[in-house]
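Review form for a predicted model. The reviewer records the input and the model, then writes brief findings.
Reviewer: anonymous (R2)
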Amino acid sequence: MKLNISYHHLESTPSIDEKVREKADHLKKYFDGNVDVNWVCSVEGDRHKSEVNVHAGHFNFHAEAENDNLYKTLDEVLHKMEKQLRKKNEQVKDKIHRG
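Model under review:
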């Protein structure tokens, strides 16, 4: 898994980097092979925002969350991304078992 972390209007800190890497590790269980994860943390006014883009093969997934706490946005965006990935995996399984 290739992880790229970007910051907009926010300073990078080791604790944020570690937390993002920890959250991104949760996504590994959904993929076999090369996966590119782009994680963007930003601040707009007093609102914190996290965006995740996952590129795996010919699949692209995107999720974003906004909150007053950066760490809450990390949890929320991971939850949204995992929901999308579980749904896609179920669709693939249904297609395989239908045939």
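Findings: The chain has a mean pLDDT of 93.
Further findings: The first helix runs from residue 14 to 25.
Recommendation: see findings above.
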